[in-house]
Design a protein that fits this description.
CATH topology of the largest domain: Isopropylmalate Dehydrogenase
Order of helices and strands: EHEHHEHEEEEHEHEHEHEEHHH
Distance between the termini: 24 Å
Shape: globular
Strand content: 15-25%
Largest sheet: 10 strands, mixed
Helix content: 40-55%
CATH class of the largest domain: Alpha Beta
CATH architecture of the largest domain: 3-Layer(aba) Sandwich
Number of domains: 2
Structural class: alpha/beta
């Protein structure tokens, strides 16, 4: 049975890495059909909106989207497209794996961890932000709810249980921010009691940053609030070689959007040297979500194989002399075995 997904090619290098990724998905015979929808600068030029209603309707219709990097123009009047989609579809769980691959600029060997970030509340709410005192003072409200905390912590524990992971670490700042961060920690402790087979650890965010740099192997699944998760997930990407190897999933009850978390890199757009790995790994997450984990695993193993044995076909940012297309070609050849 076929499954239709919404596909946003994206801006800058987005179309190049998306074409490479779809070529790999087709080689895996996943039974996927694609509805290409507009967002970002392309949508702004064609429809006068960064995120047209027709595109939102398509994502709602299919429940799954694969998204390349988008550009939000700098200046007043433009809000983040990613934030808009997360709020529109209530995509409360941002899931960011950090996995070591060979032949990259990884700082460590054998890292395999996941950051689960609350995606819809916390410090990133536009409500409650204002300037007072003639613009000399900026105010920002941090809003954390019991419901939001419970569902993100439960998501992290269920992810750990379903994937054979042994430990969940709740990262917080409850020692200082006793209300919002304190509530998150209280809820995390309550939910942890329901999963006695999974080790539970709590860690203050500044210590977590230090521990990640000193000994990242002690972490398995990290769950935290919006701002801390945004920072920690990029820190983890740096440990394994950078955002070029960083996929992300945004999961809600009725929709899921999978993406490369790096930017649109307009300075190298059209040169066919963009690294497609982040979007390929996001596609692997999507296949897991769609009930095809063996195909998701095949992509991850195939990437590892290409990075180890086809260095001439790897993109320059990973030390190779290849192109976006040559990487996809090598991966397709590997998958077809």
């Amino acid at each position: 049975m076929s499954q239709t997904i919404a596909v946003i090619k994206g801006d800058g290098i987005g179309p190049e890495i998306m074409d490479a990724t779809l070529r790999v998905l087709d080689a895996l015979d996943c039974g996927l059909e694609y509805d290409f929808i507009d967002a970002g600068l392309t949508a702004l030029e064609k429809h006068g909106s960064l995120m047209p209603q027709d595109s939102l309707d398509a994502i709602a219709r299919y429940g799954v989207a694969l998204k390349g990097p988008l550009t939000t123009p700098i200046g007043k009047g433009f809000s983040s497209i990613n934030v808009q989609m997360r709020r529109h579809f209530d995509l409360y769980a941002n899931v960011r794996p950090a996995i070591t691959f060979p032949g990259t600029r990884s700082r460590y060997d054998d890292i395999d961890m996941i950051t689960v970030r609350e995606n819809t509340e916390g410090a990133y709410l536009s409500e409650g932000q204002e300037f007072v005192d003639d613009g000399n003072t900026g105010l920002s409200v941090i809003k954390v709810t019991r419901q939001g905390s419970e569902r993100i912590v439960r998501y992290a524990f269920e992810l750990a249980k379903n994937n054979g992971r042994k430990k969940v670490t709740a990262v917080h700042k409850a020692n200082i921010i006793k209300t919002s961060s304190g509530l998150f920690l209280d809820v995390a402790r309550e939910v942890a009691k329901e999963y006695p087979d999974i080790e539970f650890q709590e860690m203050i965010v500044d210590n977590a940053c230090m521990q990640l740099v000193m000994n990242p192997h002690q972490f398995d699944v990290v769950v935290t609030t919006n701002l801390f998760g945004d920072i920690l997930s990029d820190l983890c990407a740096g440990l394994v070689g950078g955002l070029g190897l960083a996929p992300g999933a945004n999961i809600g009850e009725n929709a899921a959007i999978f993406e490369a978390v790096h930017g649109s890199a307009p300075d190298i757009a059209g040169r066919k040297i963009a690294n497609p790995c982040a979007l390929l790994l996001a596609a692997a997450q999507m296949l897991d979500h769609l009930g095809m984990p063996e195909k998701g695993t095949a992509i991850r193993q195939g990437i590892r194989h290409v990075l180890e044995r086809n260095r001439d076909m790897v993109t320059p940012d990973m030390g190779g002399s290849g192109t976006t297309d040559s990487f996809a070609e090598a991966l397709v050849t590997t998958l077809r075995g």
